[in-house]
Amino acid sequence: LTWNLLADRDVCLGAGVCVRLAPRLFDQDDDHGLVVLLMAPSDDMQVQDARAAVEQCPSGALSFVAETR
Amino acid sequence: MTTVADPHGAEQPLRRFRFPDGHLGWFTTKHSSCRAIMQDRRFSVHPMRPLGGFDGGFQDALAGPEHVGDLLRINPPEHTRLRRYLAPFFTLRRVEEKRPMVERVVAEQIRAMQEAGPPLDFVHHFAIAVPSIAICEFLGLDPSWRSRYEAPTEALEDMTEASTPADKLASVHQLYDFASEVIDDKRANPTDDLLTEIIVRSGLTDTALRGLLLLLFIAGHGTTALNFTAGVCGLLSQHERWEAARADVDSVDRTVEEILRYSMTTNADMPRTALEDIEIDGVLIKAGETVVVVPGRPGGDLATKPDLCRFDPGRDAGRHLAFGHGIHMCLGQHLARLELAVGFEGLLRQLPSLALAEPLESIRWYHRGTLGFDHSAQLMRDPLLVAW
Fold this sequence. Notes:
Chain A is an alpha+beta fold.
């Protein structure tokens, strides 16, 4: 099972909710304040954090898709 | 009109609401509906007609030409451009860099309280002072200008009969006059700060700049002030709550989150107008109809989690709508959280014996009487006597 975490910078408005909820997975770049993906969630805890970030992202810029290989 | 609001008020699903001028709209306090509407881009934050003073004239007073710079009153694509322009100045990292400034502001206010001695008014010595001085420092304005926006904001946010729609409109114009002076001052004396950046480089017209500055200064101090007051009331109303928070100051972020969730003091109840026919929670809202969205306190589904009615600083507050949701979610939420966390940590550590110096029952709350429900209670800027 792989988790595809996607961040759409064309939709992102830089609220920073994801960075607060999951600072190891997300960042905001200094120039635009928009989302930057740091890494894919690598354990259950991070998957949970990523899920919370996707759900609470105010602009709808994040999505999270599980794929079976 | 002053009343002690019922904090356990049940969620109200979408129902018809008649604005004072007779036109029909909707209103709801149901968490899931509020959240769905806030997130749905088919709703506009700019009403198609005046709202008839349903809120004492608050929304109508802010609907003038200057609204084009007010993030809370414009839609995409204008909103997207302005929000994206401002985003890099309000990131979590940029805000966190201001922690030493916020710590200094909090320490200075606590020192001033100690020098003045108890009992004193918490609202003006701390709750308003801390966020107001901090937003001045954050934006780059000498805090000696504070009274220029604090006084009109107080009249604008006063939901009792003491403030008429005409009073609110006059307050808004005082705020625009203040903004005009700030704009002139920064143009004449540009400095290395956010206000100068916005005024010189944003490309906004002066009309739009006035609207944006009004938003930054009102939202930059008023809501956090209310959260400080509501939070201190909540913590001090039961001695064991204050002691529990004191025993675990390291968890102040969690305490702050519960205060945000429970006190629900943010003006997140922006009316939304449907741009097309939209079905929400099984109800068809017709194009052009306005919904008054008043997220209640619970921050969740009361039917499955009735315990959410209780203020419990020890809990994980989970997701709440204190900063709204969707594209209009609060721009300054990281700064607000930082101020509240540093502020409560300072109070818990420096004034450990803090206590209310007046009975809880004597504290005035208001409800949005014109709406006919008392779900969205906020503390007025009445004095709140504390001692230590």
